[in-house]
Inverse folding.
């Protein structure tokens, strides 16, 4: 699995509706600035069983997951957001303890539902939240194919909202950046990217779909991604159901066949009592790449969350991933972890 990734898509609505989820309490600084953020830390254990003749491996970690500080600025029709983000080794061992400016953009509200933004911002792709304080679990429910969900990139985007429907289009420096998941590639001479989004949001039912395309002239490839998610909130039981399908295709100029990856995830979250909720997910993923054995896997995860206070919550997760076929020798992966998140 590539670095754990989360995206903020439809979960903000669910978070506001489920009693077991405490809301972030922003800190007002004057009349125009709000500060918010979080600190998360966890203890994690994972074990991977491999094919006969290949040694199994396991790891145990206790470290920060991430630290984030955001400033939201609002003055009449003009708004801005700046966020500093530092991942820990449990979340991203390659960029551990490095500080990234993940968000830095200006927005202008033209009225009549039109908003234009420019700078660095989060991708529209993905159902699961990027930020720890809005997540349901410690790891992505999508499993290995969570790498199909990009994080941040640079560009200009336009959104139009009419009632419950939002349309969006973005021109980007890149959709993905393999070198750094927290920024775009900042290079427009090697090709551009684009995202196109439609979203419907209601108290009971919401859905969204995003199409993305990226052209890289240096590596001679085109990349296409389609993401579709839906969410339903059952008011009488306070249950939230979610589903996501994500599909990615790489077309290389000098390769006879494309690389195709996709995954399907179904999830649910149920409050058990005022402060306790339990989330669960089931996912299936498949990867096809020229000259390599296809990969297939199934993942099952259960994650309870206990809200200690408005600003502090504890979360745990156990999961099992079974590989029918894999690019590596992995057969089964077991994961367990506990996490504390302080948010403001």
């Amino acid at each position: 699995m590539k670095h754990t990734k989360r995206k903020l898509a439809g979960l903000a609505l669910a978070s506001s509706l489920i009693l077991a989820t405490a809301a972030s309490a922003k800190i007002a600084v004057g009349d125009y600035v709000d500060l918010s953020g979080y600190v998360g830390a966890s203890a994690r254990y994972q074990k991977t069983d491999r094919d006969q003749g290949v040694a199994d491996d396991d790891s145990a970690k206790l470290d920060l997951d991430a630290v984030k500080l955001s400033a939201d600025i609002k003055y009449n029709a003009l708004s801005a957001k700046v966020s500093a983000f530092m991942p820990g080794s449990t979340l991203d061992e390659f960029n551990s303890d490095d500080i990234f400016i993940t968000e830095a953009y200006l927005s202008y509200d033209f009225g009549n539902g039109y908003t234009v933004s420019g700078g660095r911002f989060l991708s529209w792709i993905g159902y699961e939240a990027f930020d720890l304080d809005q997540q349901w679990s410690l790891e992505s429910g999508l499993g290995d194919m969570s790498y199909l969900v990009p994080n941040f990139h640079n560009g200009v985007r336009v959104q139009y909202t009419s009632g419950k429907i939002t349309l969006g289009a973005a021109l980007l420096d890149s959709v993905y950046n393999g070198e750094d998941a927290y920024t775009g590639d900042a290079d427009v001479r090697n090709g551009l990217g684009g995202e196109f989004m439609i979203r419907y949001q209601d108290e009971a039912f919401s859905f969204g779909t995003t199409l993305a395309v990226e052209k890289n002239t240096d590596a001679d490839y085109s990349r296409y991604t389609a993401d579709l998610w839906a969410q339903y909130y059952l008011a009488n039981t306070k249950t939230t159901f979610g589903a996501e399908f994500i599909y990615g295709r790489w077309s290389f100029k000098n390769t006879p066949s494309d690389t195709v990856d996709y995954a399907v995830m179904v999830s649910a979250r149920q409050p058990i009592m005022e402060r306790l909720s339990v989330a669960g997910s089931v996912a299936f993923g498949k990867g096809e790449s020229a000259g390599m054995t296809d990969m297939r896997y199934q993942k099952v995860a259960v994650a309870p969350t206990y809200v200690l206070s408005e600003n502090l919550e504890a979360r745990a997760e156990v999961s099992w991933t079974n590989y029918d076929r894999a690019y590596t020798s992995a057969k089964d992966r077991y994961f367990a972890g506990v996490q504390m998140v302080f948010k403001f």
